[in-house]
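Go through the following before class.
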Amino acid sequence: MTMNRREFAAAAGALVAGTMALRPSHAASALSRAGWALPAKKPFQVIENAWIPLPDGTRLGVRLWIPEGAEQRPVPVVFEYLPYRKRDGVRKRDDATAQNLAPFGVAFARVDIRGTGDSQGVMTDEYGELELSDGVECVAWLAAQPWCNGSVGMRGISWGGINSLQIAARAPPALKAIMPMGCVDNRFLGDAHYIGGALATENFKWGSYFKVYMGAPPDPKISGADWESQWRERLDATPAILQRWTSHQRYDEYWRRGSIAADYSRIKCPVYVVGGWLDPYSNVVGSLLAGLEVPRKGLIGPWGHLMPNLPAPLSLDWAYEEIRWWHHWLQGVDTGIMDEPMLRAYMPYRTLSEVYPAELPGRWVAEASWPAPETHPLVLHLGVGTLEAAPAAHGSLTYVGDKIVGLCKPQWMPSRPDDQTPDDARSLVFDSKPLESDREILGYPRAHVRISSNVPVAKLAVRLTELTPDGKSWLVSYGLLNLTHRDSHEHPAALEPSEFYEVEVPLYMVAHRFKKGSRIRAAVSESLWPLVWPSPRIATLTIDLRRSSLTLPLRPAPPREAPFPIPVIRSLGSSPYTHTDMGPGSEAHLKSPLQSTSIAEVGTVVSTQSSQDLSIREGDPNSGVWTQENMTAWKRGDWDCAVTASFELTSTAEEFRLREVLQARQGDREIFKREQVSTIKRELL
């Protein structure tokens, strides 16, 4: 079974209501050490739906949790702003968030974005101008409520984290602080669409889920008698979003819109960014801490695309930390949170695949500032099958990219990788000598390679692994670069056959302890499939060993780590990370069973089902086929609706061929179907 990034977050939300047994660890004693404790819990009221009016007459639906007595003594409010249906989508996750805020004197608001869930209007893209300007209006409306003290915060994971950054960049006066999680600051490089300038499978997988969200019906209990006309308006407005994303194959104005990395100075309020090492969005923690100038903090834990309080083998008593943040910036209470290190990160001693489903062993480390001044580069030079302290005196290696590499690391999110040995056997590998002591890294590994290609379009993929004495190769980090993007993602340039280029391949930010007796391995291939679409023609790469190296951010262990003040919770259950069996050779046929969830509070049953097929013939890069179909249905009495979105992608050396289908059913009757077929020129991709 595979899940998309947003589906994974929604499924994690459902775990909150489970019966998983939890037991606080000894870290709870950190409460007294920190000199600050959570205030006593107080009752709160829940408003199922209120309306936020917008200047154009559209109304946004908002669910509210308001502390008792706020009308007499106003409180700050924090809001999340999502397309994921507050009434029947991530309801349980929203309830869990509210339980961390409202009892401790911080109101919580969950707003459905225009055209989704209970909100009026239509949605036609991610992070559009209307979404962001509406978000600014939400800040002003919340600040003006009689129960609010005028201070507003934003928080959220994935979409909610990304638009928190984008709305903060518009500097609405009442927005005093944000807490983005699992997010990106560069929409082209960091999100699901392109990886290192190469077209990602997730671009299409996520797009088909997104079309279901755009075309989903409003709930008649909230929207009233004209809900069917509102639904039809949404379906009619849903665009060929996959065609749009696939047509923007470089870092153009389309992707720069909303990419706050283009100008970090636009953010004026404090930022607490949170990520997980098993989440492909972990990169943003380091880049935000380094790029922002406002008061800021970061935390990276041993989890995936999850909020840090959701059940896993190790999670955090997040109410303690989050309330400290909001009380400090929204109420002016000195909680001591800004006296602590800028970054806290979990240092794993093993990889997830080695220990799953047990807890990932390691410890929490802290850095007073970022980049960490004590971290220094460990440069390992590529030799003939080796990583050496000194560069090679001469020599080169050639690699023919006609092999399928990447089956052991098949998914962008959230599956865990396998032992990398089968992929390593189809790659160029470079191994260090056995380590004489443990070595820890924290930061961004980078590969510096002098390389040539015999064709004008090619990629370079680098996997960093730990080769243990038993011969297993465990993935630590990886990176990939479309070599036509070597100098610029905005202005790619074709490779001149046989000409050598100096390129740098950034790997994902990581923390890891390489153990004494293990070897550090760099595994090099032309691509990773099915993570990204193959190059148009088979490329033969030549690497100049004299000027090629791997640089690791070596972190010396300090004599004493800063104490970790956030209470830790350990679960008796297992992590919800999935594992994908790609099947034999070059094909994968994946289908999830029909899953139904009853939302008892509103009487609605939500059912979902998805299937995907990924196939390719080795040695034939344009034999690849990606297909997926996603269905979500909502039923309560005679309200019975379903939306299905699907796609198929194929290619020639010159173009992509894409088919998108959107269908809607009411009861047993099909009420809508649109099929759109596109031919899209490949632009050095």
